[in-house]
């Protein structure tokens, strides 16, 4: 330990003693005593409940998820953390809408096409109208409406179905027609822009030919074929067009004897010539009937009020999501690592902070240990909190997020003493430095920043609950152990968890959070451009 770090550590201890004096107690407790309460035994005890078959995979809106929330609340109570609500509840209630297809099919001629095999009707664009019986389909190029290329020019598509290609026109030399360069425009990867254009033109149904239907189906099946959950009360559906993604086989069958005419029109567009439409004389009926159901869930909040009157209105938020994927038939997705491991870790950290509070040693700032639901449905529980914060976001100093910290990935086989750190330097250089110094002073884990790269193709920075805080300007740090072959499978079970390594990570998270909660000045937001 160099002199500078040694001085900082002494100052922290002196500050803790000063706070103890303010509380009228004397104590010889140090931060190490409270970190020592985070143990493999505790973590195993929590996870044995959270990842048990009795909780049936903890899917948001299910009885198993509610049982998990009750267990978390019971642990907060056993730690001596009082309910934050006056009615004695630890819960922040969240309203969701569960949507599932009641009936979805396409009938063309004598053939009935099947959702998930021949086409994908996208839930996001489910409409109020449930049945579309249309006499024809109009081929409209790529469905682009731009000053440099307009597939809708001189085309009347109001109340009609259009057939378009995914992507944007590009010539044989790889030059994109809109940009005039090798770089695509935003039309090439934005279904949203195409749907906005179709809405403006009054289109009833957009049928888009997928570039790779099989891959797209694999990526979106969980959201479009099975039930999905969104925030808020059930709506009546979109007023815009329905969106149906077609396989190339189904598209050709709908074109019938006009296949060559459509391909010629597409090739003409790719050469930069004026778009030419084709009227496909194919009557069809799209049935897209949705079932919508109101369900409720809860974020579970363990609030430890700070003991320093000057700082207790400021808040350190420590999060992990406790929901997982539930059941599929007889298979239970127990989610031991995802994210029973993070939930268990935050529970033990909450116990450590509660113990410090009981001993009168800290924390100076308030600490909110929040276990959120709905992460697997799109970071919904943390999004709800960020939009409806129980404690003002302007007083929230930092979010510390823990997601999947119980396994060792292939890169680190044989060396479990590591952790991927994501986002620590995106908004605050103080946060990054504090975590590194805490680790050097205590756990000495390998800090791996691979997934913190802005061009990381996995985009983990955007894929866990910290992002809803960071997006609103709150500095956030995300602790993660990487993926593995059991990710989102029934085989993510408790016997594969490394509790010794998990406890070390939990201690690092606590040491960093302790410094954030007890330092004199809140960390700065000093990184621009994020």
Structure description:
By secondary structure, the protein is of the alpha/beta class. The protein folds into 2 domains: 3-93 and 296-518, Zn peptidases (Aminopeptidase, 3-Layer(aba) Sandwich), CATH 3.40.630; 110-282, Glucose Oxidase, domain 1. 31% of the residues lie in helices and 22% in strands. It has helices spanning 3-22, 31-35, 40-50, 63-78, 191-200, 213-224, 248-255, 259-270, 336-358, 380-387, 429-441, 466-470, 499-518, and strands spanning 91-108, 111-114, 119-121, 131-134, 137-139, 145-146, 149-150, 161-165, 205-209, 228-231, 242-246, 278-280, 284-304, 315-321, 326-328, 331-333, 366-372, 396-402, 418-422, 446-448, 476-480. Helix 3 (40-50) packs across helix 9 (336-358), helix 9 crosses helix 13 and helix 11 packs across helix 13.
Low-pLDDT stretches are: 1-26
Q: Please give the domain count.
A: 2
What's the CATH class label of the largest domain?
Answer: Alpha Beta
For the CA atoms, what is the radius of gyration?
A: 27 Å
Shape: elongated
Estimate the mean pLDDT confidence.
92
Residue fraction in strands: 15-25%
Enter the CATH topology name of the largest domain.
Answer: Aminopeptidase
The tally of beta strands, per DSSP, is: 21
């Amino acid at each position: 330990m160099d002199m500078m770090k040694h001085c900082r550590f002494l100052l922290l201890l002196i500050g803790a003693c000063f706070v103890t004096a303010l509380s009228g107690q004397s104590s010889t407790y140090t931060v190490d005593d409270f970190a020592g309460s985070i143990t493999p035994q505790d973590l195993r005890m929590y996870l044995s409940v959270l990842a048990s078959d009795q909780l049936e995979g903890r899917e948001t809106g299910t009885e198993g998820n509610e049982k998990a929330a009750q267990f978390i609340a019971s642990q907060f109570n056993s730690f001596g953390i009082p309910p934050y609500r006056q009615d004695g509840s630890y819960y922040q209630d969240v309203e969701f809408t569960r949507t599932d297809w009641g009936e979805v099919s396409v009938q063309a001629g004598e053939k009935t096409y099947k959702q998930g095999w021949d086409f994908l009707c996208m839930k996001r664009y489910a409409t109020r109208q449930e049945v579309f019986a249309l006499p024809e389909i109009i081929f409209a190029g790529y469905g682009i409406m731009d000053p440099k290329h307009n597939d809708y020019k001189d085309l009347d598509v109001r109340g009609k179905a259009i057939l378009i290609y995914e992507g944007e026109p590009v010539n044989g030399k790889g030059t994109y027609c809109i940009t005039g360069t090798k770089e695509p425009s935003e039309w090439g990867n934005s279904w949203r822009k195409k749907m906005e254009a179709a809405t403006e033109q009054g289109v009833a149904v957009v049928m888009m030919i997928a570039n790779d239907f099989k891959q797209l189906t694999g990526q979106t099946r969980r959201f479009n074929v099975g039930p999905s959950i969104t925030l808020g009360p059930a709506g009546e559906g979109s007023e815009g067009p329905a969106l149906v993604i077609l396989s190339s086989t189904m598209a050709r069958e709908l074109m019938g004897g006009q296949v060559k005419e459509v391909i010629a029109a597409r090739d003409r567009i790719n050469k930069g010539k004026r778009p030419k439409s084709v009227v496909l004389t194919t009557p069809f009926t799209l049935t897209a009937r949705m079932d919508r159901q109101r369900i409720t869930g809860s974020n579970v909040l363990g609030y430890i009020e700070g003991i320093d009157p000057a700082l207790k209105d400021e808040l350190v938020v420590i999060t992990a999501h406790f929901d997982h994927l539930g059941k599929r038939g007889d298979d239970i997705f127990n989610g031991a690592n995802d994210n029973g491991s993070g939930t268990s870790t935050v529970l033990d950290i909450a116990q450590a902070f509660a113990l410090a509070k009981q001993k009168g040693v800290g924390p100076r700032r308030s600490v909110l240990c929040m276990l959120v639901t709905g992460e697997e449905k799109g970071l919904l529980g943390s999004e709800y909190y960020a939009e409806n914060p129980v404690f003002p976001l302007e007083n929230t100093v930092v979010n510390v997020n823990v997601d999947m910290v119980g396994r060792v990935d292939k890169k680190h086989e044989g060396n479990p003493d590591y952790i991927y750190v994501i986002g620590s330097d995106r908004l605050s250089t103080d946060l990054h430095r504090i975590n590194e110094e805490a680790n050097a002073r205590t756990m000495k884990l390998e800090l791996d920043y691979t997934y913190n790269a802005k061009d990381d193709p996995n985009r983990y920075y955007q894929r866990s609950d910290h992002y809803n805080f960071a997006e609103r300007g709150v500095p956030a740090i995300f602790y993660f152990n990487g993926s593995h072959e059991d990710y989102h499978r029934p085989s993510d079970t408790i016997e594969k968890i490394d509790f010794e390594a998990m406890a070390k990570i939990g201690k690092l998270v606590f040491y960093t959070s302790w410094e954030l909660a007890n330092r004199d000045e809140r960390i700065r937001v000093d990184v621009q451009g994020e």
